[in-house]
Design a protein that fits this description.
By secondary structure, this protein is mainly alpha-helical. The protein is built from ten helices and no strands.
């Protein structure tokens, strides 16, 4: 019993460190956030942070992993079932990208990561792994199932995935840039759905 309790407590602390770090990084940037500030906000000693992470960089990479991760939080079976219905698969995928794009903390972190990507090779590798490759894999599996079920034209699933994802990423980047300059993004609020409609019309049988 004591061991189980300790494990749960440690897991909870680690999650809180990540949550607090995400907020601090998004507000203060990478350089403006220190391990001491993170510990203070979490409510633990600075030394306790090192029971979970080696340094600030490791915390940052873990936060980045969550921001870059595919937003398609469904099981493999759920993805397969949804893909057999065709267009709803694309709507679900685009909607989760939209939710991330208009989430303030997520958006601030996304903006910070775009800056840090130019300076950090390890972060670039993580971006390719956690965002690009995983998203392409999920989409490719979905498009392949649609092709098997004669819902869309037969083609290279990976190239179709590139085409679909690239526009979502561009819309997300555009929203981030416009918010940075305090411009209204109301006109972009329906672009995710419009992209799905346009794309589906171009690939459906």
């Amino acid at each position: 019993m004591p061991n189980g309790t300790t494990s749960v407590k440690r897991t909870g602390t680690k999650e809180k460190i990540l949550k607090v770090s995400t907020i601090l990084f998004s507000k203060l940037g990478y350089k403006g956030t220190s391990v001491r500030k993170i510990a203070s906000e979490v409510g633990i000693r600075e030394s306790a942070i090192y029971n979970h992470y080696k340094n600030k960089e490791e915390i940052f990479f873990e936060v980045a992993k969550g921001i870059f991760a595919t937003p398609f939080s469904l099981s493999s079976d759920e993805i397969k079932e949804l893909a057999t219905r065709g267009k709803p698969f694309l709507h679900k995928f685009a909607l989760q990208h939209k939710m991330l794009s208009f989430d303030k903390t997520n958006e601030n972190m996304f903006r910070l990561l775009m800056i840090e990507l130019m300076q950090n090779k390890e972060l670039r590798a993580q971006f390719m792994s956690e965002f690009h490759q995983k998203n392409i894999k999920v989409l490719s599996e979905g498009f392949f199932i649609m092709m098997q079920n004669s819902l869309i034209h037969s083609s290279d699933p990976m190239m179709v995935s590139y085409e679909f994802l690239s526009t979502l990423f561009y819309i997300r980047l555009q929203i981030t840039l416009m918010h940075f300059d305090e411009l209204s993004t109301n006109a972009l609020s329906t672009h995710f759905e419009k992209h799905v409609d346009f794309f589906w019309e171009s690939i459906k049988i």
